[in-house]
């Protein structure tokens, strides 16, 4: 899981605006698996508030999306590794 926070500055003064984020990873779905064994967890629009309110168990929300959800293309003649570097 990756985490972070952000602040907004005005000149030399930085104001913390309390925004934070987290990136949860799950096993890769069929679209991503040829490139990597993990992917970001993706919540559908109807899952967002249920996740934030804790209304559904994690196992119900944090699962790979169906094959064909992502459009993945490899550039012709290019190695996949540079595309995966962060």
Automatic annotation (TrEMBL):
* InterPro entries membership: SRAP, SRAP-like
Keywords assigned: Plasmid
Top-level taxon of the source organism: Bacteria
Question: What Gene3D superfamilies does the database record attribute to this sequence?
Answer: SOS response associated peptidase-like
Annotated Pfam families = SRAP (PF02586)
Instruction: Please report the name of this protein according to its UniProt entry.
Output: SOS response-associated peptidase
Its taxonomic path starts at:
Bacteria, Pseudomonadati, Pseudomonadota, Alphaproteobacteria, Hyphomicrobiales
């Amino acid at each position: 899981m990756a985490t972070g926070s952000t602040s907004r500055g005005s000149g030399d003064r930085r104001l913390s605006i309390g925004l934070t984020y987290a990136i949860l990873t799950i096993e890769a779905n069929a679209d991503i698996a040829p490139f990597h064994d993990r992917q970001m967890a993706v919540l559908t629009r109807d899952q967002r508030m249920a996740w934030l309110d804790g209304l559904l168990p994690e196992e119900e929300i944090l699962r790979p999306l169906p094959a064909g959800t992502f459009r993945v293309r490899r550039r012709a003649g290019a190695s996949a590794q540079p595309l995966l570097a962060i």
